[in-house]
Amino acid sequence: MLRAGDTSVLSLARSADGPPLTIPRDPAREAARRELSKRMYHENDPSWFQRALNAFWDWVDKLFNTASSATPGGPLGLVVVIAAVLLVVGALWWRLGTPSRGPASSAALFDDRPRSAADHRAAAEAHAAQGHWNQAVQERMRAIVRSLEERTLLDIRPGRTADEAAAEAGRALPSHTDRLGSAARDFDDVTYGGRAATEQSYHRIAELDRDLERTKPVLAASASSHSAAHNARQGAAE
Q: Does the predicted TM-score (pTM) go above 0.90?
């Protein structure tokens, strides 16, 4: 007497003698897709970063192969061309040096937006309150020059540089010539020399601004008479 298990064996034996079971293409493809989508088949797959890195290196490899095939001599010729280009670039860098900025006084002090001295002072104080000392120094120097223009001690001239303004202002305010020159250098160092301003440098320029406001200018006639008297005293002493 056959049990259930024996019946299964006999059934399998009969099916082995018969024609093979044929599954339509589309259902077979869908069954294979479902089977392969199971997590157990993807535990050792590379991460997205590794896949992206592999794709990048594949692209570099294709690019190198394309370039080497187009270069006489193949890969060796491409290496020689790259080495020659690097040597030329290195020679130019050694000969010309690091690109440097233009002269410190070559750029204008003001931009194309006319503002009053009070506006520049307010902007300087706002920058100083935030610790932006570069901008604070720039705006305070602009306030000094604009104030001298408003007092007609300097003529309004577009394109004036900080050095030019300091030299011209020193003739009307000779007691502050050295401090005006120092302020102009601070402005140039920050604006065109790539240096960082400090809180102390800003306070020096701000103090100069306040002192200039209280200083009376030396008129041209007074300056001439003063110079003549000074020369006379020197002659008498000799």
A: no
